[in-house]
């Protein structure tokens, strides 16, 4: 009884009267579940995050410098061999694990189901994104004579479907005992008036709290401890939606070792000044990625003395860390950004509304915000045609059509995929 009162008090304080009405209409278990959820949510945090959506983002340009990078295509044969050898040794010793971030909603793609279950129409019969990732890992395993641990991060929303899918497809031939699935944490969604959305189960609608949640979720799930027990020294973290992602790049790993840094990342040059990708820079002496939504136009177009974009190294979610770096980041709170997205909800009449345009804010921490914790990062500039075929939008740029084209061209150039 008291708990109900407390919950109503909280809702009143934070102007969530529609949830009070919902609570009034619920009984038994459903009501209890909602109350428990209300007591668990940090309303103050959500209120602050919502208020922040109304503020202008300020970037003080004078503190920003271009990032240094090594261009993979410009390495001499000997340089590359030396780096590759450093990387290979780590992998052969079984000290390398990979993490796939698969907890996103994939709202822009509009695929019903986890993004990894999306089938890219390649080579006639097509391949699922999870299948493409598996092939990449299996190839590395064969090459280096190991079985790399593969951690897959899901959201509460898509976990069951992801597990069922991978089970059904027998992990596309990947040794099951080497695949570990863990789930990330969530935050509520709010509409443009700061009201929390309600979901189909008559609860407050929550969604995964961004790919920056990977670090703390690795820790909370026990995966980090397990990695340490297994002697893992280097951890790769990549996205689920890049059909050309190389999860095992010995040159990148070798570069990180050679430079004696804790973090490393593969970049590609921005396709044009306004491409929707985050770019690397150094801010106040620390590595940083500025999201495209937060990069002032003037900086986006700035060129250096060679006519190259000054802030042109795109972050393609191809990141590498020492296990100590993961441990350290997992204990640090990352800031939240807001993303304006389409999210369905239940209205006051109990009807489901499926919006046709963005209607609500999702609060997300970004994987790259952790880079600032370090003094340095090794950046290896790869090639778009070798490393980056994102599947983001339903149509147009970074869509299944462009990813298919890039994937097939790559494999026609290299070796034919079966
Ligand atoms: P994006 O930020 O592009 O988001 O994810 P998304 O969910 O795939 O797509 P939209 O923006 O809703 O259309 C980049 C990578 O981060 C993962 C995604 O699964 C993808 O691999 N991600 C994103 C998470 O694992 N958790 C999140 O909360 C968000």
Distance between the termini: 62 Å
Quote the CATH topology. Answer: Spore Coat Polysaccharide Biosynthesis Protein SpsA, Chain A
Q: Beta-strand percentage?
A: 15-25%
CATH architecture grouping? Alpha-Beta Complex
**pLDDT average, as an integer?**
94
- Identify the CATH homologous superfamily: Spore Coat Polysaccharide Biosynthesis Protein SpsA, Chain A
Rg of Cα set: 22 Å
Please count the helical segments: 14
Count of structural domains = 1
Dominant shape: globular
Helix and strand content put the structural class at: alpha/beta
List ligands, each type once: uridine 5'-triphosphate
Number of strand elements: 20
In spatial order, strands of the major sheet run 2-20-12-15-11-3-6-7
CATH classification, class level? Alpha Beta
Q: What composes the largest sheet? A: 8 strands, mixed
Question: Could you list the spans in which at least 5 consecutive residues all have pLDDT below 50?
Answer: none
Helicity, in percent? 25-40%
List strands and helices in order, with pairings:
Layout: H1 2-13, H2 17-25, H3 28-40, H4 43-52, E1 64-65, E2 70-71, H5 77-92, E3 96-101, E4 119-120, E5 127-128, H6 129-144, E6 149-154, H7 159-168, E7 179-183, E8 186-188, E9 190-191, E10 206-208, H8 213-220, H9 223-229, E11 234-239, H10 250-259, E12 263-269, E13 279-283, E14 286-290, H11 297-301, E15 313-322, H12 323-330, E16 337-341, E17 345-346, E18 352-353, E19 360-364, E20 378-381, H13 384-387, H14 400-413
Helix pairs in contact: 1-3, 5-10, 8-12
Uridine 5'-triphosphate binds at residues 101-109, 115, 153, 184, 208-211, 213, 239-241, 317, 364, 392.
